[in-house]
Amino acid sequence: MPEQAPFNKILVSAAADEIPLALKEQLAVNGRLVMPVKNSIWLVVKKSDNEFMEEEFYGFSFVPLVSQ
After folding, report:
1. 49-65: string of b/e by CB count within 10 Å (b at 16+)?
2. How would DSSP label each residue in 17-68?
3. pLDDT class of 65 with cuts at 50, 70, 90
4. Residues 6+ apart with CB under 8 A from 3
5. In whole angstroms, what is the distance from residue 45 CA to residue 28 CA?
6. Is 0.70 surpassed by the pTM of this model?
7. Sign of the C-alpha dihedral computed for residues 15, 16, 19 and 23 taken in this order
């Protein structure tokens, strides 16, 4: 939803193989993205337009993200 960005929070509830750049770009500075990737949950905090802090939390199982 880039036309409504930037967002302070983005929560994705289905697992993907990687964090899409499009989601990171839609975050506001200091915004947070929480998303399952493979068998981990990732927290991404946008520090500036080009800088992100990423933290991985291991040991989960998720339904796969369906792409079309």
Report:
1. eeeeeeeeeeeeebeee
2. SS--HHHHHTEEEEEEEEEEETTEEEEEEEEETTEEEEEEEE----PBPP--
3. low
4. none
5. 9
6. yes
7. negative
Token pair belonging to 58: 């291991």
What is the rounded distance in angstroms from the CA atom of residue 10 to the CA atom of residue 12?
Answer: 7
6 upstream amide cis, omega within 30 of 0: yes
Tokens of 39: 């068998």
Would you state the structure tokens that stand for residue 1, as one six-digit string?
């939803």
